């Protein structure tokens, strides 16, 4: 009795189900590959668009910075030729006179008032 090889055949409906299941899985795999490829193309396009926007923004920032630098150099370039009486006006351009500037922990109102006073009525210069 130990050598009995009984081979049971699968029922017909089970064979049919396995074949149909295999076909469904193949179709799902094909659809998945198609969707993956669509997503890859979409991602590639979005990345290219992002790089275009980035390059445009970078060029715009560079040109803005160059203009600001040239204006600054033009203003500072004449540093040796300061007109008497305009020193405090130039100093006040670089100061923030807003009452509550963020990040200030010390009271700078006295310094602010002195700079504004010097700008409005500079001390007499010795010639």
Folded structure, characterized:
This protein is mainly alpha-helical. Helix content is 67%, strand content 0%. Helix 2 (87-93) crosses helix 3. It is rod-shaped. 0% of the residues are buried. The mean pLDDT is 82.
Quote the distance from N terminus to C terminus.
Answer: 130 Å
Cα gyration radius (Å): 39 Å
Helical residue percent band? 55-70%
Structural class: mainly alpha
Indicate the mean pLDDT: 82
Pick out the low-confidence regions: none
Largest sheet: none
Can you give keywords for this protein?
single chain; mainly alpha; 127 residues; 3 helices
Write the layout of secondary structure elements.
Elements: H1 12-77, H2 87-93, H3 109-120
């Amino acid at each position: 009795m130990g050598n009995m090889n009984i081979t049971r055949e699968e029922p017909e409906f089970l064979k049919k189900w396995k074949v149909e299941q295999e076909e469904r899985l193949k179709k799902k795999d094909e659809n998945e590959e198609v969707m993956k490829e669509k997503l890859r193309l979409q991602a590639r396009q979005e990345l290219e668009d992002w790089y275009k926007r980035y390059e445009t923004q970078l060029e715009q920032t560079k040109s803005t910075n160059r203009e600001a630098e040239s204006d600054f150099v033009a203003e500072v370039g004449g540093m040796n030729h300061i007109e008497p009486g305009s020193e405090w006006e130039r100093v006040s351009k670089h100061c923030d006179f807003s009452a509550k500037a963020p990040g200030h922990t010390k009271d700078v109102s006295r310094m602010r008032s002195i700079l504004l006073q010097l700008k409005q009525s500079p001390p007499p210069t010795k010639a």
